[in-house]
Design a protein that fits this description.
Number of domains: 1
CATH class: Alpha Beta
CATH architecture: 3-Layer(aba) Sandwich
CATH superfamily: P-loop containing nucleotide triphosphate hydrolases
Shape: globular
Strand content: 15-25%
């Protein structure tokens, strides 16, 4: 909250239609879930959130990918005119590649946590002094780690840590249908105060 105003401070996405609907943008230093069916441009939104921060607000960003390879994201976003490679060289954009090993997933046996991943993300945020973090897409993470209760706890820990660092977090989840459950796995919404649905 801004002192004395009672207004929630926002991070503009610089997408006129979205910022109009969201009353100025996404809440600063909070986590927002972007949920949509396949093909609804969730990854594009997550990348645009970082690109807009760099181009319009001089704010660095971290993109955590759980599904697509980093080279694929760079190539897919070229059509929007975003110089991601240049931003990486200038330490304005940082990738954390948590996508699955192409040789096949490693079976999860016994208890696990995401401490190593959290450490990588925190390191990236500090390295580029990131104010914006995008995590895309959590569905792939659920496939690797099927224990819902543990995942819920770990996702809460990650988002809480990033918010305490002053970062505004966007993460994406896939919907199987336009109505009904918000996301395929029904976990992401438990770690959010703010929820935005993107319906194809």
């Amino acid at each position: 909250m801004r002192k004395g105003t009672g207004m929630l401070e926002k991070h503009p996405t610089h997408s006129a239609g979205f910022d109009g609907i969201a009353l100025g943008g996404l809440p600063r230093a909070r986590a927002t879930l972007i949920a949509g069916s396949a093909g609804s441009a969730k990854t594009v939104f997550a990348a645009h959130f970082l690109a807009a921060g760099i181009m319009h607000e001089n704010e660095s960003g971290v993109f955590v990918t759980f599904e697509d390879k980093v080279d694929d994201i760079r190539r897919n976003m070229q059509g929007f005119g975003w110089d991601i490679s240049g931003w990486e060289e200038a330490e304005k954009w940082y990738f954390v590649d948590a996508s699955p090993d192409p040789e096949g997933p490693t079976p999860v046996v016994g208890s696990f946590d995401l401490s190593a991943l959290l450490a990588r993300i925190e390191h990236a945020v500090r390295k580029v002094d990131a104010k914006r973090v995008s995590l895309d897409s959590l569905n792939a993470l659920f496939l690797q780690f099927p224990e819902d209760q543990i995942l819920r706890s770990e996702l809460f820990r990650i988002t809480s840590s990033l918010k305490s660092m002053g970062a505004t977090v966007v993460f994406t989840g896939e919907r199987t249908e336009e109505y009904g459950h918000v996301t395929r796995y029904g976990i992401e919404e438990f770690v959010n105060k703010k929820l935005i649905r993107v319906v194809k």
